[in-house]
Amino acid sequence: MFRSVFRAAPALTRVSGMRSGFVKPTFSVASRFYASSTLSKDEITTRIADVIKSFDKTAAAASITGETQFSKDLGLDSLDTVELLVSIEEEFDIEFPDKVADELKSVGETVDYISNNPEAN
Amino acid sequence: MPVAGSSKVQILHMYKEFIRNSNKIQNYNFREYFLRRARESFRANKNVKSPEKISELISEAEKDLGVLKRQSVISNMYTFDKLVVEPLKKR
């Protein structure tokens, strides 16, 4: 009765040994899994610029920098700004909390928030 | 600005809810309809000054938002073929 257990044991270790040997190379290659935004600020700015350009109301979207203000430079009213922020949210797969969204007035502020948000991609 | 502080923020938040929920709708025609309707109705009333009218419009919009939320959830229970005017992949 016990013999079957003893016989099973080495087989088990062999299997697990094989598996760890198999896993090892992928483990050393595997990238880190903790949250960290990999987006650079330049990339975020270009992508926001693309969103603004596809947002058809903005004629002055030609040159977008961090200093570009939604209301002053782009001529958006408060409703347009809300809509633009929703498009940016969709672009980066995040949701600005209402408090944050109310404070975002320029491209630069938005870039800063997104680059500090680990969930953005 | 015709609308006083807190209610302006409240209305903007409500507008955001309208846009977000409209975007979730799967069917192109309904999605564009709700977006168009939200944009048009908020803009049509942007110069309303009387507080009674504003609160009346707000409660009306709350009712509409309820309908919109229900419909967007329902629309996600079904699949819709993309129309030819829709891009297959965003971006």
From TrEMBL, chain A:
Keywords: Electron transport, Fatty acid biosynthesis, Fatty acid metabolism, Lipid biosynthesis, Lipid metabolism, Mitochondrion, Phosphopantetheine, Phosphoprotein, Transit peptide, Transport. It is found in: Mitochondrion. Pfam families: PP-binding. Its main location: mitochondrion. Signal peptide: none annotated. InterPro entries: ACP (IPR003231), ACP-like_sf (IPR036736), PP-bd_ACP (IPR009081), Ppantetheine_attach_site (IPR006162). Pathway: Lipid metabolism; fatty acid biosynthesis. Residues 42-118 form the Carrier domain. GO terms for cellular component: mitochondrial [2Fe-2S] assembly complex. It comes from the Eukaryota. GO terms for molecular function: acyl binding; acyl carrier activity. HAMAP family: Acyl_carrier. Belongs to the acyl carrier protein (ACP) family. Carrier of the growing fatty acid chain in fatty acid biosynthesis. This is Acyl carrier protein. It comes from Kluyveromyces dobzhanskii CBS 2104. The lineage of its organism: Eukaryota, Fungi, Dikarya, Ascomycota, Saccharomycotina.
UniProtKB/TrEMBL annotation, chain B:
Residues 10-66 form the Complex 1 LYR protein domain. One of its GO terms (biological process) is iron-sulfur cluster assembly. One of its GO terms (cellular component) is mitochondrion. InterPro entries: Complex1_LYR_dom (IPR008011), Complex1_LYR_LYRM4 (IPR045297), ISC_assembly_LYR (IPR051522). CDD domains: Complex1_LYR_LYRM4. It comes from the Eukaryota. Belongs to the complex I LYR family. This is WGS project CCBQ000000000 data, contig 00106. It comes from Kluyveromyces dobzhanskii CBS 2104. The lineage of its organism: Eukaryota, Fungi, Dikarya, Ascomycota, Saccharomycotina.
